[in-house]
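Hey team,

Sharing the TG protein run so nobody has to redo it. Sequence (179 residues) first:
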Amino acid sequence: MKVSAIFLLSVISCACAAILCPPNYCDSMLCEEVTSENCEGRVQEGGSVCGCCDSCIAQIPLGVSCHQTMLLGLPATSECEQGSKCDFMSMTCIAKTCAELKEEQGNMLAALDKPLLGAHLPECEADGSWSARQCTGSKCYCVDEAGKTIEGFGAKIWEAKDMTCGTFFSREILTLPRF
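Structure output:
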């Protein structure tokens, strides 16, 4: 069984590698216009086979099957929504941890090669989970265990020095300035 699975994977890998784009291939392609108005997802510039045409990438919500993202060698037509990833064990979209998002955003900021005014990386606990208080731009706010904003509780960043949100995790009422 293992040998046949390995053989099948090697055949698929070879077939995917055989998809080559000949020179001037895109010159003969007729591309449909893909815009944010006609795409219910994310527009990927040059996202089709050989990068000839723009494509629409459907966004898969949390908890929904993401097995269709596993088409090896073909351009993606769907992906887990922003802030989530495909869990290969359950084949469903799950939320990224705070640590994963912090690393991802840190890499993006490092690639800019200059500081970005108002940019803040997520605040994470030592175990990679979300800190209860997060700050972005000029505001600080409270988040739940999944890192989702708890509406109505926050403060301007210069007023939030002593702001604590940890009691939200235990569902206690917290008095904070409201936006």
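The helical segments are 2-17, 98-112.

Ping me if you want the raw files.
A.
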